[in-house]
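Field log, afternoon session.

UNIT: design team B
ACTIVITY: writing a sequence onto a fixed backbone
BACKBONE:
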């Protein structure tokens, strides 16, 4: 399927690894120009070199801390100076530490909200005006299955990501007249470094091997598998395409059927 986004400009944050890297690669495969960032200068430059060489697209790599509003503003200026436009935004950040609700202080919750919710809001504020002016845009916010089905050992994620859904849903109605869509992605377990770390933590806490922790997790997923980053990237590329112009305000699960609710 031709996604008809070749030549568009996409901003993909936290993209030196994990889901961000998978999204960047999926968009580059479609001929999309990329502005990617992370807090690690070496890793983001290596990612840019690899993606640019493999897919023959223009890739701008910058250091950006998405929890810092000033850092986002600096990144935005560099993107617009370089590309003069932004058509697609994948707002992404790392996950907060695992643990139960009573394991954390109020400051821990504030940091988690800054990391996940406020970073999304500030990234949207930074790039939305360009989408509205050109009357074409795709906003994709990264969240988690926890926004629909809270997990007991991910209290900070449960709380900090729920607001993303409310923000994107509210925003989607406001920007629809400008031909801008806004959707939330809610992945279950996708095999990234983050998930590997969560499994290692679970194995340690339960006194079992990493292999046993992995098998235990798989047994709770109807497909009996852990998702691949490429699967997630492909979904994001479709939602960024012309074909997804009638999809907005949605929270879309990609979880192998793990979510047990109906809505």
């Amino acid at each position: 399927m031709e996604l008809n986004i070749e030549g568009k400009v996409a901003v993909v944050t936290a993209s030196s690894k994990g889901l961000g890297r998978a999204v960047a690669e999926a968009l580059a495969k479609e001929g999309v120009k990329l502005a990617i960032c992370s807090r690690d200068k070496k890793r983001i430059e290596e990612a840019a070199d690899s993606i640019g060489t493999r897919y023959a697209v223009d890739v701008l790599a910058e250091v950006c801390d998405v929890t810092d509003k000033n850092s986002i503003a600096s990144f935005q200026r560099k993107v617009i100076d370089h590309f003069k436009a932004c058509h697609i935004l994948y707002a992404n950040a790392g996950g907060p530490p695992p643990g139960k609700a009573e394991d954390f202080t109020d400051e821990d919750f504030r940091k988690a909200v800054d990391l996940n919710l406020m970073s999304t809001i500030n990234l949207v504020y930074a790039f939305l005006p360009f989408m509205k002016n050109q009357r074409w845009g795709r906003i994709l916010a990264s969240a988690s299955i926890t926004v629909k089905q809270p997990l007991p050992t991910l209290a900070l994620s449960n709380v900090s990501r729920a607001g993303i859904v409310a923000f994107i849903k509210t925003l989607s109605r406001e920007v629809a007249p400008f031909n801008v869509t806004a959707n939330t992605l809610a992945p279950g377990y996708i095999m990234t470094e983050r998930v590997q770390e969560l499994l290692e933590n679970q194995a340690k806490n339960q006194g079992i091997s990493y292999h046993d922790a992995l098998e235990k997790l798989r047994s709770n997923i109807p497909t009996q598998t852990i998702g691949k980053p490429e699967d997630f990237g492909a979904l994001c590329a479709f939602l960024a395409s012309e074909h997804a112009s009638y999809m907005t305000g949605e929270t879309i699960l990609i979880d192998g059927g793990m979510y047990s609710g109906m809505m």
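LOG NOTE: The first helix runs from residue 18 to 29.
NEXT ACTIVITY: expression trials, pending approval
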